[in-house]
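Sample intake sheet
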Amino acid sequence: MYPVNLILDDKPCVVIGGGHVALRKVEGLLEAKAKVTVISPMLVNELTNMVQNNLIIWKEKYYETGDLDGFELAVCAVGEENASRQIWADAHKARILINVVDKLPLCDFALPAKIRRGDLLVTFSTNGKSPALSRYLRCRMEKEFDDTYALWLDRLSILRNEAIAKLPTSNDREIFWRSALSDEVMLLVQQKKYDEAEGAIKNAINSFRPQS
C-alpha cells in the first residue's frame, strides 16, 4: 500500500454495516469532512443519533449490487465473508476505492489511527496488519501532541508563502527548509516562543542564497 492521506471534503462515501466497527469508520470519515451514507438494516444507538442529527444518511436495507453507485469511497464492515467479497467485487467493477474491515487482501487503502490538532494530522498505520497496535501508538502519543504544533503550523503556512515568493525554484525551497526548520527553531516552538521561531525563519529567508 502507498501511504497517502485522502482529501475527502464533501465527497460522498458509504459505509456498509451498522455495528460498532462501522461506527468507528463513520466517525473517521466525518472527521475528514466526508458526506457519509450508511447502508444497514439496523444501527447501533450512536449511529442512530447521527442520523437523527442529520450528520449521516441511512439506507435501512441490506446491501445489494448497485448500491455503490454515486460514491467515491466505500468501507465494508459487515463481517460476513461472502457479502464482503461481493461488495469488494462490486467496488472494483465500479472503480471505487474500498476498505474491507479485517480483510487486508480486499483493501485498496488502510484507515490509520490518527491525532488531529487543527490542520495538523498525525497518522499511525500498520498497513492493516494490526489496527490495535495503531490505536495503542496513537494513545501513547496523544499527550505529546497538544496544540503547540498546530499553532506553529498556522504561522508556518504564512512563512511558506513568503519563501515561495522569494526563492525562485522548488529545489531552492527544498534546500532552504531542510536547514531553516532546524532543531533550534523547533525547540523555540516547543517552548511556545513562536515570535522568536518566526523571526529565525524570516531571517533565514532573507539571507538565503539560491544555488548556482
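Comment: The longest strand covers residues 12-16. The first helix runs from residue 20 to 31.
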